[in-house]
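New to this. Please check this record:
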Amino acid sequence: MDYNRQHPQATQPPQATPHPQAATLGELRASGHAYLTVKQEIRRNLLARMRSGEDRFPGIVGFGQTVLPHVERALVAGHDIILLGERGQGKTRLIRTLGGLLDEWTPAVAGCEINDHPYAPACASCKRRAAELGNALPVTWRHRDERYGEKLATPDTSVGDLIGDIDPVKVAEGRTLGDPETIHYGLVPRTNRGIFCLNELPDLAERIQVALLNVLEERDIGVRGYALRLPLDVVLVASANPEDYTNRGRIITPLKDRFGAEVRTHYPVTLTDELELIAQEAEVAWDGADPGAELPAHITEIIARFTRLVRESPAADARSGVSARFAITAAEAAAAAAVRRGALAGDSRDETPVARVCDLPGIVPTLRGKIEFEVSEEGREEEILTHLLRRATADTFRARLGGADLTGILDKFAEGETITSGELVSASELLRRVGEVPGLAKIMQRLGMDGGESPGQAAAAVEFALEGLYLLRRLSKETDNGLTIYGN
């Protein structure tokens, strides 16, 4: 499923190229600039990226064969879009990538509150100035990043917030109420010549939704009951939970009908998509003096499988869903547990802490708040999550180390010996207690730890093998005050 990447440590976007030099309407015409509506502009740029094979929606994971084709058809058709899906499916992330389909720079009338194009002024002020100044009308340039607007719909959102209202200051300055220039424009007109996103549309009061009807169909606005013809050039995109899944509100039928395309989103379909999402979104490494922690592939896979099991569990409320943030938070918390161990257990500061299986049970209580459980499961939430985490660990063990020769580890328990691990047992201390393990290199290789292995990686591999053998009932395990004791 596809999500947008927003990492501070990720590769920085390229610097914006300088905007064109035209500073007046006359210079703009002389430059050969052609006027396109926003929908025409997006359509042209989208088709150009398709022909060149360029990524149209950077950072979006897993929607490639399901959601994105519908979005592309809607954009080519010039439709406004509503994305429907449960929480945490990346709807807003997807919408934010649409701004990348705009031209890098676009001209606007300098000083215009609603960013009118110099060739097609819409507001009364720009029409008057264009008539007075002609080719001397001043032009400014707006970057695509400035042409995206967003509002979270809340019950207290007003028509004035979205559309506009009479500005009492302008009236006090001597303008009459019938003068269009007395209006203080709302968020939608101020995003004219751009893309406006309205998140959680059903939360918007129904009487406020009515105010959007003209914006979507007639492309104009009306304020305070007097006629104001203001043709807007804007792409309106909304997100919502499917109406059957929410009791907070609904989208009124006339408004829903005016959206050209309704696109359903979904959670990651495959384990591969889930893994890619975690790798892309989870922040487990930090720049600077504290480098964060390493998240081994088998730990990431456990978290991904855990998330999918929770999503499929009848104990979880399917109407609410299990957000993609569940897996992301779990990965970040596991990495943080490794950093904490490194600080408390005295591992070398020169070594990057490595997350281990023992770090996962401790994050279950913090994840509980991200899931809505069925009423019948009240009081058993942590028990259910712990059980599903064990299943995910066992499934990952079978996938990663099923059929592997683990006699080198099992032999450690032949004489009734035990091995103690735990979230505050350092990697070096765990390896000292385990001693030399024949075949450890092959185990690490199967876990994707190829070459240059650190003590932290070796400890993570050994502990994963121990936990897997316990879950397959080939070892016993006891827990005591944060310690885990494995035995025969």
